[in-house]
Write a structure and sequence with these properties.
It comes from Brevibacterium rongguiense. The chain is of the alpha/beta class. 28% of the residues lie in helices and 19% in strands. Helix 1 packs parallel to helix 6.
């Protein structure tokens, strides 16, 4: 998966436009042009809407951020390109508050658009709300199509209104053409992207043209597609001879059935936890009995989420099959010591034995050597951190399920205490905890949180061995962020992440 720079793949780009222009399977039942020179485009295929995942970022306080964007499972290059520009707009509008990253906030799931709203009708172009149209019907843009948003408020505490919307311009075969429209302080920018869904590669819209310099970024950003499947720039259809090889391929693809990537990992959000408010779901002390594992697996599958399981070595040895089963469905299976001692009280050799025996048991069960450790009782020390060659995952939400053994209390505590960036601690060996899973998962989602694994929560930050990770964001000195990637015992402050 990769986002290719504007000038990095111009040759490939040209063929995409041509492809786009030759025809498509109509979103309203139209027929494609079969790749002939008399291309026909009358809408995006109906099948696409079923695979668009809707997201929203809306801050109710003064409504400074209002973003609506889609993702497609398996098209990570598209999401990465969109996220980069969305966060750039947020930062430009002052939403980072002088920090190096966004602190994601909760957004009511009701704010998320229905999938069809992301699909442009043929010739529609960016909407007025997305382009910052003023009363005279004009669109404010910077010369050359560079981000037009003012940066006067960035990092100075002055926050401006920021909007962001992405949309599908055209799609067919294994190509998708999309648009991202942002406004910062009333000034608008549009960018078009071309995604090869088969290769999972996303390029700027300029890659559609043989001469990437012929049209300005603002012109490409506002392009539409006509009924002959040709790009329309400044009101005129582009000549077929001006398409790159990629542009030609894209035009031809518009007459083919849409080929979407696998949705096997639909349980993972399309965007990172640097943009979305995520919560890591973790379970200690397993695996439990085969029946407990089966029950919990079913709840995870039904909710379409995955968790991190920190397993006790003795239990791994007793129930080896459970570990591979959990791993194969997309969960993380990691180390929780051999028999649950307080690691900070052990000698170096005994500490190593606790972890090595568990790793070997996991490997014998078909699980790769662990890269994460949940220390029993959360007990660590500078010496433990230095010796342990794993990421040490702590928590900031203790459901106390081990103490209360109460399903209602586990649900209530897990729901009320979880915030964006939280790590929830539970135990997969207690039946009341397992019974709490369906309602807890439902509540977390209703709150606007995205349940993920520990590894996904910290994705995009330095996630290194010897460091301790409690949560993500800026709400606590213990949380990880670019300025403070991890807690390192024995050090006054962790080394900041390198600047982008």
């Amino acid at each position: 998966m990769k986002f290719i720079g504007r000038f990095g793949a111009l040759a490939a780009a040209g063929s995409a436009v041509a492809l786009l222009l030759t025809g498509c399977t109509g979103g309203s039942g139209g027929t494609g042009g079969g790749g002939s020179d008399s291309g026909h485009f009358d809408g995006v295929p109906d099948s696409l809407a079923e695979r668009l995942n809707s997201y929203a970022v809306h801050t109710s306080e003064n409504s400074k951020l209002d973003a609506h964007f889609f993702g497609i499972t398996g098209a990570s290059s598209l999401s990465e390109a969109m996220e980069k520009d969305i966060l750039k707009a947020f930062k430009s509008g002052g939403a980072f508050h002088g920090r190096r990253a966004l602190d994601p906030a909760l957004t009511d799931p009701e704010e998320r658009w229905e999938a069809p709203k992301f699909i442009e009708q043929p010739g529609q172009g960016p909407t007025a709300s997305a382009t910052g149209q003023d009363g005279a019907g004009s669109t404010s843009q910077a010369s050359g199509g560079a981000t037009a948003s003012s940066t006067s408020g960035a990092g100075k505490g002055k926050e401006q209104k920021v909007t962001a919307e992405n949309s599908v311009v055209a799609a067919g075969g294994h190509f998708l053409v999309s648009r991202l429209s942002t406004t910062v302080g009333g000034q608008a920018t549009q960018r078009v992207f071309v995604t090869d869904l088969e290769k999972n590669e996303t390029q700027p819209g300029s890659a559609l043209f043989s001469d990437a310099q012929k049209y300005g970024a603002d012109q490409v950003g506002a392009m539409t597609v006509d009924d002959k499947a040709l790009p329309v720039v400044d009101g005129s259809a582009v000549d077929k001879g001006d398409l790159s090889d990629l542009g030609t391929q894209v035009r031809q693809a518009m007459g083919e059935d849409l080929q979407l990537p696998s949705d096997d990992k639909s349980y993972e959000p399309d965007y990172s936890c640097g943009l979305l408010p995520c919560v890591a779901v973790t379970y200690d002390d397993g695996p439990g009995t085969p029946q407990q594992t089966k029950e919990l697996k079913g709840y995870l599958k039904d909710a379409n989420i995955r968790a991190t399981f920190f397993q006790i070595g003795t239990n791994v040895k007793q129930y080896p099959k459970a570990n591979k089963e959990l791993l194969d469905m997309g969960n993380e299976v990691e180390n929780h010591s051999w028999n649950h001692p307080q690691l900070s009280r052990l000698s170096g050799s005994k500490l190593a034995q606790q972890l090595d025996r568990t790793d070997k048991a996991l490997e014998a069960a078909g699980v790769p050597k662990s890269t994460m450790l949940r220390p029993p009782y959360g007990a660590t020390s500078a010496a433990v951190d230095k010796q342990v060659d794993k990421r040490i995952i702590q928590w900031d939400v203790d459901t106390l399920d081990w103490k209360t053994r109460s399903t209602p209390k586990t649900v209530k505590t897990g729901t009320s205490m979880s915030q964006p960036g939280s790590v929830i601690l539970m135990h997969s060996i207690h039946e009341p905890t397992i019974k709490a899973a369906p309602q807890l998962y439902k509540n977390l989602k209703a709150k606007g949180l995205y349940p993920v694994t520990s590894g996904y929560l910290f994705k995009g930050l330095p996630f290194e061995a010897h460091g301790e990770y409690f949560c993500r964001g800026y709400r606590s000195a213990m949380c990880s962020n670019p300025e403070h990637p991890m807690v390192e015992k024995g050090k006054a402050k962790a080394k900041p992440a390198p600047e982008d």
